[in-house]
Amino acid sequence: MNIALFPPLLGLIGMIAAFVVYMLVMKYPDGEDKVKKIGDQIHAGALAFMKTEYKYLLVFIAVLVVLAQMFLGTETAIAVVVGAACSSLAGFIGMYAATKANVRTATAAQKDGAAAALSVSFYGGSVMGLCVASLGLIGLGGLYYFYAADGGTHVHALEGFGMGASVVALFSRVGGGIFTKSADVGADLVGKIEAGIPEDDPRNPGVIADNVGDNVGDVAGMGSDIFESYCGSMIASIAIAYTMKDSGLMFLPLGLAATGLVASILGIFIVKLRSAKEPASALRSGTLLAPAIFIVMAYFLMNSMGDIPMAVLWCVISGAVGGVLIGLITEYYTGSAPVKKIAESGETGSATVMISGLSVGMQSVVIPILILATIILVSTSLASGAGVVGVYGVGIAAVGMLSTVGITMAIDAYGPVAVSYTHLTLPTNREV
Length: 432
Known about the structure:
Strand content: under 5%
Helix content: over 70%
Oligomer: single chain
Largest sheet: none
Number of domains: 2
Radius of gyration: 22 Å
């Protein structure tokens, strides 16, 4: 079998895994009476938003396809369609699963406790993560097989895949984000200030819109955004390798992404096994162990390919380790001492909160920037020293950083699902 077929085949396996995880979510009860009613309203609102958004998005995609056909050729136009379709499908499926998981997380928390709630909410987020990684491999891997494998002459057309994914990411991320914040602020202004209803109380209709925004912006929008970055890093590395006429280096980004998908599935399983422990500890286990598994698998993959310099492996490792470090630093600045410092500054008024928050925000990006600069320097030097174009080392390091996007996205999407469940539990204590 042609080795170029393995990435799209593993992508299909990943979609099967996503379906299995979705069915595990659906096994949990969806609640009764008011909880179920509110959950259905959130689900219906999210579907309505996505359908409207995609209707307008289709116009822009059509224009882009026509322009690509006129100036870049049929192959690029096809790639644009495939990229847009895969990104849209990943976002829609992830949002659909998240809105189904919301109400089931609430019910599981009330009946079975925190461990069950963690399982349901994480499963809901895992569908998004697996869809992003799997559809990226299916779409880009399939195009690579037809356009680039076995001496294909249409490698340039792969850039169209990134163009299509970027347009969807722009609409989904920005459009969904604006909707989220508009609904959030509107609900607070009308509920707390005008009507005197407590924040996040479902008696306020704006809370429903707020929860819809959490799903369409922070799940679907974020998924499409990461999908574009995930595939963009692979496309860039493939294009650079093509200029070097090295088929092994051309295939390597897709091979690494495929191993990353397997590592992500194992990481999701690890989180499930540790779900009985503290949620933060369980999630951190998956976040740390998945990249470690990926690095081991990447070593065996590159050894099996034979002609890949080991310096390229160190470029991949630098990206994977750098991604983990940036995640840990972000966790510190968003859930540890800096947050407490900002909260304490509120004792002296809103002005000090803003000043403190702004200063901590600026401080929080310094170390990640230094890490990224170090990754670029190290990967460029290693690749150049091994006789490979230096910029390829940077590209493959980015692939290494994003290869475990399956579990990273699962943990990111877990947040909106878990937040929504707290809103759904309120009707049990208040009249709606």
